[in-house]
């Protein structure tokens, strides 16, 4: 399959063209038309409202996108890291889907690589992946996971690339906290920081960002698993 | 590496010199059938530690279909000098060597252990070897050879300030960058239509220049509706483009110089690969642009750009 790309300039231009006539989505390539049809069918059959149930929509569509794109011939992590490809998918193939979820905000169409919607979905699942479908869905469907989880996971991708296994392990332990334990932790860290938007998850991600300046997680005794355990322990949680 | 944050002794120029560090250049290759085939590496004209990888002539290596392997040999002497109160690890600890690879273009990073040594070792040779499976990486990848605490020791009374936690990084021996796609960094230039606007403007769209990508935060917008736009597009339009680039770069560097991020940018620490500060650091340090006064900056940028093709920047 030919993986098409859009430069930032072209994405800006194509977005303007689409905004002039939102009813017309011109896809020149049959393969991409198929992608569009398959994704729209999934969204319709899922029946989830992107305006009302934002996280549910993101998580379910996210898993579908992850699984679907991984099955495209020639698709790889290398392709998934190609911002130009996701700009093409977002602006040329499915801008209407993004509009229903995010309105007109350019960041989610092409401007901000960690926010371009379909890239964000694919990477959310990739960073939460637990080895198979069942375990991964168990994590992402945990009531502990919200749109804030996606934001903190993606927009704190870390300097110089992400420690993928560390993030997967964090998601594993975080998703398993009981509702009452998480509620207490969220309150504790909100009070400690004095900020209304502070959460336990943000505290974990920030502590990780600080620690990896000095420690290489994979080289710790017990590797990434024990490293993440130590992060949680330092924040007062035994996992 | 954010060495400046290190609260304990780590590798520095003197310690590395004491190790009589000898290394070969990296060689890059891939496996096809049962042979190892070489991948060519071309040194970047402006940056000695940056190599552009491409298939050798007549060969069909590409990272979508083939893996990327690297190897080299490192020879070190006087390894025992790194242990004890004047070193970087306790006498009874073990130090490991690893290659930390990072790539913001690939949105990934990882580590490849190489070997280890203790105080009992004096001279030792290490084979550095790693494989990236096909379809893993894109863009620019940095390979840093680091030392780390492989096994903790029991600190003596004069060793308590030394790093002694598993996985703690003890400094960097050296690093290189490899470019898998593209030719390094190209200044982002885009077009717009603005009937009453100037020929060009520069957009500086960063929130945190130590993290935000240069390519995403900065762009020159050329106005295709301006009466002089045809001069840019003309055959000898390069000289006008260089003038525009020089002015835009002056603006960007001045903004960073006036910010709280200047010290870090100048020193080369505390910013991500590909970030605005990383780009400014490169311009100032590697291309040696003179930032002492606005007029010196203007002059040194133009001298530098006029000596290079636009695409080589």
Quick synopsis:
The complex is a heterodimer of chains A (239) and B (313). Chain A is an all-alpha fold.
User: Structural class per helix/strand content of chain A?
Assistant: mainly alpha
Secondary-structure element series of chain A? HHHHHHHHHHHHH
Radius of gyration of chain B: 23 Å
How large a portion of the residues of chain A is in β-strands, by DSSP E?
under 5%
Q: What helical percentage do the residues of chain B reach? A: 10-25%
Could you tell me the radius of gyration of chain A in angstroms? 19 Å
Describe the protein's architecture and organization.
The complex is a heterodimer of chains A (239) and B (313). With 239 residues, chain A is mainly alpha-helical. Chain A has helices spanning 8-20, 30-46, 54-70, 77-80, 83-93, 95-102, 117-128, 133-140, 147-155, 164-175, 179-193, 200-211, 223-234. Chain B is an alpha+beta fold and 313 residues long. In chain B, strands 1, 2, 3, 4, 5, 6, 7, 8, 9 and 10 form a ten-stranded mixed β-sheet that branches. The longest helix of chain B is centred in the last third of the chain and has 20 residues, at 238-257.
Topology:
The complex is a heterodimer of chains A (about 240) and B (about 325).
Chain A: H1 8-20, H2 30-46, H3 54-70, H4 77-80, H5 83-93, H6 95-102, H7 117-128, H8 133-140, H9 147-155, H10 164-175, H11 179-193, H12 200-211, H13 223-234
Chain B: H1 13-18, E1 22-23, E2 27-32, E3 35-43, E4 50-55, E5 68-76, E6 94-103, E7 108-117, E8 124-132, E9 140-151, E10 169-179, E11 189-192, E12 200-204, H2 214-217, E13 218-223, H3 229-233, H4 238-257, H5 262-267, H6 276-286, H7 294-306
Parallel strand pairs in B: 4-10, 11-13
Antiparallel strand pairs in B: 1-5, 2-3, 2-5, 3-4, 5-8, 6-7, 6-9, 9-10, 12-13
Helix pairs in contact in B: 4-7
Throw out a few tags for this protein.
heterodimer; A: 239 residues; mainly alpha; B: 313 residues; alpha+beta; 10-stranded mixed β-sheet; 13 strands; 32% strand; disordered C terminus
């Amino acid at each position: 399959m030919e993986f098409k790309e859009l430069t930032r300039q072209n994405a800006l231009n194509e977005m303007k063209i689409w905004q002039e006539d939102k009813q017309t989505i011109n896809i020149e390539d049959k393969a991409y038309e198929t992608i569009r049809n398959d994704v729209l069918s999934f969204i319709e059959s899922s029946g989830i409202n992107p305006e009302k149930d934002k996280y549910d929509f993101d998580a379910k569509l996210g898993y579908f996108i992850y699984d679907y794109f991984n099955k495209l011939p020639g698709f790889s992590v290398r392709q998934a890291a190609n911002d130009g490809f996701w700009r093409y998918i977002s602006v040329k193939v499915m801008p209407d889907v993004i509009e229903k979820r995010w309105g007109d905000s350019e960041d989610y169409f092409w401007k901000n690589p960690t926010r371009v919607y379909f890239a964000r979905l694919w990477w959310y699942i990739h960073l939460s992946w637990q080895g198979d479908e069942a375990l991964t869905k168990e994590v992402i469907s945990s009531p502990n996971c919200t749109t804030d989880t996606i934001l903190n996971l993606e927009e704190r991708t870390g300097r110089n690339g992400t420690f993928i296994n560390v993030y997967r392990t964090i998601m594993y332990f975080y998703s398993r906290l009981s509702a009452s334990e998480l509620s207490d932790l969220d309150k504790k860290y909100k009070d400690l920081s004095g900020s209304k938007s502070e959460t336990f998850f943000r505290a974990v991600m920030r502590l990780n960002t600080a620690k990896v300046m000095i420690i290489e997680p994979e080289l710790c005794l017990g590797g990434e698993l024990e490293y993440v355990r130590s992060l949680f322990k330092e924040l007062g949680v035994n996992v | 590496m954010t060495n400046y944050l290190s609260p304990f002794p780590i590798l520095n120029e003197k310690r590395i010199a004491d190790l009589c560090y000898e290394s070969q250049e990296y060689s890059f290759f891939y496996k096809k059938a049962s042979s190892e085939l070489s991948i060519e590496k071309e040194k970047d004209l402006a940056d000695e530690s940056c190599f552009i990888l491409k298939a050798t002539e007549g060969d069909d290596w590409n990272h979508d279909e083939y893996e990327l392997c690297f190897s080299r040999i490192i020879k070190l002497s006087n390894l025992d000098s790194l242990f004890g109160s004047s070193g970087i690890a306790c006498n009874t600890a073990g130090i490991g060597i690893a290659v930390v690879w990072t790539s913001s273009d690939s949105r990934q990073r990882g580590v490849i252990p190489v070997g280890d040594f203790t105080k009992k070792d004096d001279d030792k040779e290490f084979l550095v070897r790693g494989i990236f499976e096909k379809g893993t990486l894109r863009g620019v990848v940095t390979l840093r050879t680091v030392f780390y605490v492989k096994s903790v020791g029991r600190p003596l009374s004069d060793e308590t300030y030394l790093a002694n936690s598993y996985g703690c990084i003890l400094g960097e021996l050296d690093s290189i960058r490899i470019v898998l796609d593209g030719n390094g960094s190209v200044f982002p230039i885009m077009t717009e239509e603005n009937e009453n606007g100037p020929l060009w403007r520069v957009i500086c769209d960063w929130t945190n220049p130590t993290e935000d990508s240069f390519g995403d935060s900065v762009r020159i917008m050329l106005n295709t509706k301006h009466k002089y736009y045809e001069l840019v597009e003309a055959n000898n339009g390069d000289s006008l483009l260089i003038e525009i680039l020089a002015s835009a770069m002056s603006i960007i560097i001045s903004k960073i110089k006036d910010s709280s991020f200047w010290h870090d940018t100048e020193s080369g620490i505390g910013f991500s690969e590909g970030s605005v500060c990383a780009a400014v650091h490169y311009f100032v340090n590697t291309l040696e642009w003179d930032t002492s006064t606005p007029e010196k900056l203007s002059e040194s940028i133009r001298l530098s750009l006029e000596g290079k093709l636009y695409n080589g920047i």
